[in-house]
Amino acid sequence: MKAEINAEMDILLDIDMSFSLLSIKKLNKSFYRDQQTFTVLDGIHLDIQQGEFISIVGSSGCGKSTLLRLIAGLDKDYQGEILLNQTPIQGTDLKRGLIFQEHRLLPWLSVSENIHLALEETDLSRAEKNARVAEHLTMVGLKGFENAYPHELSGGMAQRVAIARGLVNQPDILLLDEPFGALDAITRSHLQTELQRIWQDQKITMILVTHDIEEAVYLGDRVIVMSARPGKIKEIIQVPLTHPRHKDSELLFNYRNQALNMLDHSA
């Protein structure tokens, strides 16, 4: 076991740390309610490189989902900078895919039609769109379910469709807001492994918000631990282990405990 652990510790992730795909600088976010100001995010500074998998954890209300929404461009009321490829984010666009805890599939559309919706604003031909949809259905293991409707799918299958829809535009970044939070433990574990496989295959930058510490360290190259409100980055835990990872790894267990200890003292 010691030899295996030492071998894992010698592995370095193949990421170009000289190029920041996403840069967040001096980010502050407040809400105004009942003539009072509530600060949600305070002084967030973070650089994310091309191809990284970033996990963000923190207690409820620390602002981690708000941070994801700002990166997605769903909210433009903030102070500071959010730069994608050195360009300020000005709203939503096809360069950032977003997956929520709920799959948000339209019930009157088939699986294929739900994924096609994400391609409506592209310049692709109909044939190219069909090929792209077919490719991504195969990627998430749903080939043969093209004509199924959401009510005919399990929760895990529906979330696979959501992942395919989030990736079909080939975005620079895939943002995941508790994507497996509503699933049972077995389905969740299986989809974590599948997401790891897709990330390795696509080499796309992914940012995951989660309450699940095991999930965060299992998937993430870095785990961003946020303090309680107002949300600040309390700690960044490097997880320099190769993928695919094994959930029973002793090193992974140690990183989990490190993250838990940070959260216990994050107030």
TrEMBL record:
Listed transmembrane segments: none
CDD domains linked: ABC_NrtD_SsuB_transporters (cd03293)
Keyword Transcription regulation: no
Pfam families per the UniProt record, alphabetical: ABC_tran
Keywords: ATP-binding, Nucleotide-binding, Transport
GO molecular-function terms, A-Z: ATP binding; ATP hydrolysis activity
Alphabetized InterPro entries for the sequence: AAA+_ATPase, ABC_transporter-like_ATP-bd, ABC_transporter-like_CS, ABC_transporter_ATP-bind, P-loop_NTPase
SMART domains the record matches: AAA (SM00382)
ABC transporter domain boundaries: 22-249
UniProt-recorded name of the protein: ABC transporter domain-containing protein
